[in-house]
Amino acid sequence: MDDELHERVREVIASVPAGSVATYGDIASVSGAPSPRLVGRILGEDGQDLPWHRILRADGTPAPHLVHEQLERLRAEGVLADGQRVDLRKYRWQRDPDDDAGPGALF
């Protein structure tokens, strides 16, 4: 992975606003990353200063080892879960179409 892609993934994650969530796949699509797993790897290695808690798995659930802290942080921002699942239809981030989304932008 090159530094440019790494920074692009970080920028997209940083742009997810409070009160919204995105999936690893959403971030991969918008940033042009080849896979959602790469997004997870970047977050795990270099995401402490990012709103990592706003990034969920494709089914709207947090990673098992982060579930309690992640849901607590999301709840503080007004994102409520049903059990351990966030309703993506309600809380999923919708990127402003006027933004320069760059490679792979879908929304």
Automatic annotation (TrEMBL):
Q: Where is the Methylated-DNA-[protein]-cysteine S-methyltransferase DNA binding domain?
A: 5-79
BP-aspect Gene Ontology terms: DNA repair; methylation
User: Which classification does the entry list for the species?
Assistant: Bacteria, Bacillati, Actinomycetota, Actinomycetes, Pseudonocardiales
Q: Which residues form the signal peptide?
A: none
Q: Does the keyword Aminoacyl-tRNA synthetase apply?
A: no
Recite the UniProt keywords alphabetically: DNA damage, Methyltransferase, Transferase
Which InterPro entries does the annotation name? Answer: ATL_DNA_repair, MethylDNA_cys_MeTrfase_DNA-bd, MethylDNA_cys_MeTrfase_DNAb, WH-like_DNA-bd_sf
Q: Which residues cross the membrane?
A: none
Q: Which GO terms describe its molecular function?
A: methyltransferase activity
The species this protein was found in: Amycolatopsis decaplanina DSM 44594
Superkingdom is Bacteria
The name this protein carries in UniProt is: DNA-methyltransferase
One Pfam family in the UniProt entry: DNA_binding_1
